[in-house]
Amino acid sequence: MNQNFDIIIVGGGAAGFFTAINIVEKNPNLKVAILERGQEVLTKVRISGGGRCNVTHACFVPNDLVKFYPRGEKELRGPFHQFCSGDTIEWFSNHGVELKIEDDGRMFPVSNSSQTIIDCFLNATHKLGIQTLTGQSVQSIFKAAGYWKVETNHETFACQKLIMTTGSNPKIWEMLENIGHTIVPAVPSLFTFNIKDTRIKELMGVSAMATVNVKDTKLTATGPLLITHWGMSGPGILRLSAWGARILADKKYLFIIHVNWLNELTFEEATAILKDLKLEHSKKAVSKKSPFEFPNRLWESLVLASEISEETKWADLNKNQLQNLANQLTNGAFQVNGKSTFKEEFVTAGGIDLKEINFKTMESKFHENLYFAGEIVNIDAITGGFNFQNAWTSGYIVANAVV
Fold this sequence. Notes:
Helix content: 25-40%
Number of helices: 13
Radius of gyration: 25 Å
Structural class: alpha+beta
């Protein structure tokens, strides 16, 4: 027996719920269902932002916002002019959820709990009569005469318009490939670097601003770098992993990074500063106190790596030691052997080729009444609420288009 709906949304995540709610708010007469393969909906929302749900980012200018998307920068410019971070704040406020801005620009519910967002969505779907059907794993999608047929492991559905919000689900990608879409293969996008190196072995938990670049590439990023028990993490590293997703995958995650702990300063500038310090602190031990804005433990480690003993005084530094130290500070090479997933927030680069989507409506250029929202398309962002903003924006545009 067929279950008939005006609109079916496949995928019970952030993009799916946001799209459904916006559709029925604009037209309460439409019969809408969300199909979710798991027993629970909104699972990624629950764990995101350490269980607090990083809803969006306090970046309110579309042309600035797009710069946080390694894939999708050009395509999202138009959509963000229709629905941007400010609209997200207003939308949630109208639905009883107030957001707050943290120092780094990330925005969370005032409650500090992702459950607030989940409750907001579940209450809205309930109130609007949107059916949420769990345990429905889609086996095939088929375009019949004037409608879409969706077969799950349990039953068959028919709808006028079909919206896919399944994130990086390989099975769904394969179905879309079978009906003519191109899928850009998925590779991890936000990950940390595995590094075994004596210089950082005892420094777990130490954080510093740094500029990191990948040897023999143009990949570079500046931001807080966190030393962990497996290597390096923090916003600077994650940014590099997002922009370098494809390149680093091709290298099989074996590559060398150069770390500049003094950010913009060059080797020559660092050498000049060290020469001044040599005169200024001649009687003091070099390793004792960091003269730069990063922790003493890191300074001590870099001093020892430059073949300067703990007792050596500034006055006794020879030219070689000075150059070694300047090099460790501005151009330390670290071998990366593999990657680790960043928290549970597994983000991939890959998905439906952007050329095959009309970004004014998020409709397939190949099939009428087939729409996409969220991470199913080849768009991804760095960490900080940007991936959710893509979900809200694309969902809003689909809702406008189908209504």
